[in-house]
Specification:
six-stranded mixed β-sheet, two-stranded antiparallel sheet, alpha+beta
Amino acid sequence: MTLEELKQRCENAGFKYAYGQFKKATEPPHLVAISTGTDNFMADNKVYSKDIPIQLDYTYLVKDLAMQNKIEDNILGDIPWNKSDETYLTDEDVWQVSYFFEI
């Protein structure tokens, strides 16, 4: 998967999506992806595989298992991923869960 494919999958599943941040204030629910560094496979001073760790944050106001299932089954269904605990962000009055995977 590429970042462009991730964007397409998120939008096709009906989510508002941005990489990094939205340009204007956007009401939840929405998805925001960020790169969390690199996880390259290297040997003999050469990079053989460039994997990009991605954190996909799902921000929402009301718990909706159907929406989380869309993320897990439709967007991330064919790649290995992990998920954080749900966190309440008091300054923003929203809930957030993060998905971690590589592209």
